[in-house]
Q: What sequence folds into this?
């Protein structure tokens, strides 16, 4: 038990030190993420009546179909989620390995924020605050508690790689930094895959139970 406590403390200390050492980079990606969320909210608040009708029809039809048949292909959902998260990690890793890839990293973060803001705002607009929040949070909250921080971490690792290469362009330094970035991205990819299991086997069950009472 003592060993486990010590190991947990070491991991906690490493996480805290990592965030502290890269606080400016984390502040940047978090700011970009929230800008994306705000843009998503602004977008949904300025859609046309026709677009609102289409979104309303899609959401209501989806809820009705789930109420009639709540069976979900969990294996298919898990496979799709894992595949999506692996591709996302690879994109962030590759963009972080290139000098010109930083705009891509920032773009991915902003897009993730936009999608979250758009999704929650559209659900609230169509279903109301209570049902919209319950519906939205049940589908995206739990897995994103791991997924979003992992995305931030890989992005910050890429930014750190970029800055290190700019400071020291020696081939040896570049190799070491790329290996560090690759190893760190691989660890975060495992975290993202774990979030896929949460999405599939926990969030989906909560979502099904909420839909039954809507």
A:
């Amino acid at each position: 038990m003592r060993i486990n406590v010590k190991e947990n403390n070491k991991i906690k200390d490493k996480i805290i030190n990592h965030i502290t050492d890269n606080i400016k980079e984390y502040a940047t990606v978090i700011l970009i993420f929230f800008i994306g969320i705000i843009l998503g909210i602004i977008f949904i608040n300025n859609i046309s009546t026709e677009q609102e009708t289409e979104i309303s029809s899609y959401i209501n039809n989806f809820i009705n179909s789930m109420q009639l048949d709540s069976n979900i292909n969990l294996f298919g959902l898990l496979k799709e989620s894992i595949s999506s998260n692996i591709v996302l990690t690879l994109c962030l890793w590759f963009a972080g390995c290139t000098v010109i890839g930083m705009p891509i990293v920032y773009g991915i973060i902003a897009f993730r924020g936009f999608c979250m803001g758009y999704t929650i705002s559209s659900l609230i607009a169509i279903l109301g605050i209570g049902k919209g929040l319950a519906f939205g949070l049940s589908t995206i909250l739990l897995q994103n508690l791991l997924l979003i921080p992992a995305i931030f971490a890989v992005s910050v690792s890429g930014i750190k790689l970029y800055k290190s290469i700019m400071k020291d362009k020696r081939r040896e330094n570049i190799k070491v930094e790329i290996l560090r970035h690759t190893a760190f991205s691989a660890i975060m990819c495992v975290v993202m895959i774990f979030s896929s299991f949460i999405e599939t086997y926990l969030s989906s069950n909560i979502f099904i139970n909420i839909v039954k009472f809507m």
